[in-house]
Amino acid sequence: MAKSPARAARPSYRCSECGWTTGKWVGRCGECQAWGSVAEAAATPALRTAASPVTTRAVPIGEVSIENAGFRTSGVPELDRVLGGGLVPGAAILLAGEPGVGKSTLLLEVAAQTARYQRRTLYVTGEESASQVRLRADRTGGVHDELYLAAETDLGAVLTHIEETRPELIVVDSVQTIGASGVEGVPGGVTQVKEVAAALIRVAKTRGITTVLVGHVTKDGAIAGPRVLEHLVDVVLHFEGDRNSRFRMVRAMKNRFGPIDEVGCFDLGPEGISAVTDPTGLFVEQHHGRVPGTCVAVTMEGRRPMLAEVQGLVTTSPLDRPRRTTSGLDGSRVAMVLAVLERHCGLRLSAQDVFASTVGGARLHEPASDLAVAVALVSSHLGIAPPTGVVAIGELGLAGELRRVRDLPQRVAEAARLGFRFAVVPTEPGQRGAGPGVAREVEGMRVLEVPTIVSALEALRLTAGPG
């Protein structure tokens, strides 16, 4: 029986926004949900790569020189902290963030500081004109002879600028606005972004130039473009912050040269961006006396402990379905805390409107803030203010127990440094049956270890009186 001829290759369709592929045409992308972005992909012929001459000879790893791979300061200490020590020659860094968060302002400051160290810097802008960037530089004091500025949207022109200026640092703002001629798609598309990023990174590696690429984000907060962009670069940084606050944070999501659990804190003002070495004061309100409905939590941002005040308001609701409103807190965890308080502490909160928020735009999504949220809500419900100078640290379990959290000694030490004198923390796992609480002195601070939420509220004297 004769074999049937080979079937012709079936066409495939690809999304120009995210690179998602499918075997048939659809009007809406199944990955990024974009309309009209799926089109038939051109067939790629099979290629055979032959051996070619090497660029550098392979040597034993012990003979590889590391003199040119050391850290160089960016001139911004908080950014150096996140990067693990500074900028590395030949490194490719991707900085992503929402529009208007201050990415361009931060990188213009980095470029200006690098130029002040007599290291030539090239700032390529594809989103603004050169005059607009110059005005911002005048406002922030970023004008320097070693800082070169170019407004380009063509990859070939950018590579020419690199050849002519021979910089030690390149800032491209942004990678989605640069297009490569001869490559299919529009600037910002999957193919264009991959080609532009690959070309810039290739130049960075061969010439030892530190390259910083600005990336856009989607409405969900993820980095726009193909995921391969994050794999190509050495460092991925997220620049985040609330539009209603001047406080900004840079968080490392990937770092081949240092830790990924560090954050840098900045203050974005009219004169530019400045480092915030002690951000705790931004998130703790100074009250003139004891106030019901407040409690201070200690959260970890990377390796840095930060204090933040939690405020709660519990009032009688006129609605059939009482409101549960949160700001800066995880709404599902607040709902869990309310259920635990009602079940294990005997508080009737199901008919109450509950509002919980943080001070200064802080975002507390760590379970270690559960105890502070519970103390603030109970304090508001009973109208009893907690003792002054107290911090509450601990994760709340569904059975009413308090669970230990990571880096507890660092949290307690930070609270003691800022003048707090009393801390309520969970009991050590091996001492659950040690009674209602165990008090000890740590860093000149009285630390009370309690096993349950009931014991914590009793220690803070947040209990309803008779009747």
TrEMBL record:
<dbReference type="InterPro" id="IPR027417">
    <property type="entry name" value="P-loop_NTPase"/>
</dbReference>
<dbReference type="InterPro" id="IPR014721">
    <property type="entry name" value="Ribsml_uS5_D2-typ_fold_subgr"/>
</dbReference>
<dbReference type="Pfam" id="PF13541">
    <property type="entry name" value="ChlI"/>
</dbReference>
<comment type="function">
    <text>Plays a role in repairing double-strand DNA breaks, probably involving stabilizing or processing branched DNA or blocked replication forks.</text>
</comment>
<keyword id="KW-0346">Stress response</keyword>
<dbReference type="GO" id="GO:0005829">
    <property type="term" value="C:cytosol"/>
</dbReference>
<dbReference type="GO" id="GO:0005524">
    <property type="term" value="F:ATP binding"/>
</dbReference>
<dbReference type="GO" id="GO:0003684">
    <property type="term" value="F:damaged DNA binding"/>
</dbReference>
<dbReference type="InterPro" id="IPR041166">
    <property type="entry name" value="Rubredoxin_2"/>
</dbReference>
<keyword id="KW-0862">Zinc</keyword>
<dbReference type="InterPro" id="IPR020588">
    <property type="entry name" value="RecA_ATP-bd"/>
</dbReference>
<keyword id="KW-0479">Metal-binding</keyword>
<keyword id="KW-0238">DNA-binding</keyword>
<keyword id="KW-0067">ATP-binding</keyword>
<dbReference type="GO" id="GO:0140664">
    <property type="term" value="F:ATP-dependent DNA damage sensor activity"/>
</dbReference>
<dbReference type="InterPro" id="IPR004504">
    <property type="entry name" value="DNA_repair_RadA"/>
</dbReference>
<dbReference type="Pfam" id="PF18073">
    <property type="entry name" value="Zn_ribbon_LapB"/>
</dbReference>
<comment type="similarity">
    <text>Belongs to the RecA family. RadA subfamily.</text>
</comment>
<protein>
    <recommendedName>
        <fullName>DNA repair protein RadA</fullName>
    </recommendedName>
</protein>
<comment type="function">
    <text>DNA-dependent ATPase involved in processing of recombination intermediates, plays a role in repairing DNA breaks. Stimulates the branch migration of RecA-mediated strand transfer reactions, allowing the 3' invading strand to extend heteroduplex DNA faster. Binds ssDNA in the presence of ADP but not other nucleotides, has ATPase activity that is stimulated by ssDNA and various branched DNA structures, but inhibited by SSB. Does not have RecA's homology-searching function.</text>
</comment>
<keyword id="KW-0378">Hydrolase</keyword>
<feature type="domain" description="RecA family profile 1">
    <location>
        <begin position="68"/>
        <end position="217"/>
    </location>
</feature>
<feature type="region of interest" description="Lon-protease-like">
    <location>
        <begin position="353"/>
        <end position="467"/>
    </location>
</feature>
<feature type="short sequence motif" description="RadA KNRFG motif">
    <location>
        <begin position="254"/>
        <end position="258"/>
    </location>
</feature>
<keyword id="KW-0234">DNA repair</keyword>
<dbReference type="InterPro" id="IPR020568">
    <property type="entry name" value="Ribosomal_Su5_D2-typ_SF"/>
</dbReference>
<dbReference type="GO" id="GO:0008270">
    <property type="term" value="F:zinc ion binding"/>
</dbReference>
<keyword id="KW-0227">DNA damage</keyword>
<dbReference type="Pfam" id="PF13481">
    <property type="entry name" value="AAA_25"/>
</dbReference>
<keyword id="KW-0863">Zinc-finger</keyword>
<feature type="binding site">
    <location>
        <begin position="97"/>
        <end position="104"/>
    </location>
    <ligand>
        <name>ATP</name>
    </ligand>
</feature>
<dbReference type="InterPro" id="IPR003593">
    <property type="entry name" value="AAA+_ATPase"/>
</dbReference>
<dbReference type="GO" id="GO:0016787">
    <property type="term" value="F:hydrolase activity"/>
</dbReference>
<keyword id="KW-0547">Nucleotide-binding</keyword>
<dbReference type="GO" id="GO:0000725">
    <property type="term" value="P:recombinational repair"/>
</dbReference>
